[in-house]
Amino acid sequence: MARIDFFKGRGLIGVLIFLFILFNVLLTRTMPVGLVLDLRFLYTPEILQESLSQMGEVGREQYWKGILYLDMPYILVYSYLFCRLIKNLWSGTHLYYLTIGIALADLFENLLMLYHLQTFPEISHFLAYLTSLFTSMKWIMVASWFVLVVIGLIKKLFTRQLEAS
Description:
Elements: H1 9-30, H2 45-89, H3 96-119, H4 125-164
Helix pairs in contact: 1-2, 2-3, 2-4, 3-4
């Protein structure tokens, strides 16, 4: 009987995929629905102010805890998963640096959002735009990563078909 080593190869990828899904479920259930700016693209200081205001004190506290206890560790999980997937599909390249860029943009976005939550109702326009920039950069890089994964999967599929024939 084959033994599955959960910290190597496919076993590790499976564990990371499970954790990725778990963190997504936990984040969607604990963050204030519809008001979280982490999922938006290009928002203004006014939108940030309005969103944090609509959350109320309880919602802002919930958002703070969600960022600190879920979103920050989630960065480690998805970064490692994304790096492993890119390295498996595009071996010999440095495309995994894209994943590091995603993680850094998400980290700075989270740190700035924690600052906004801490200083609310005062909102620095400059830092609000900077937060939005990091959020938008994150999503542009995630979309790029996704395209690379799709192309890598297609490339791998065609390579296997060519080798089989």
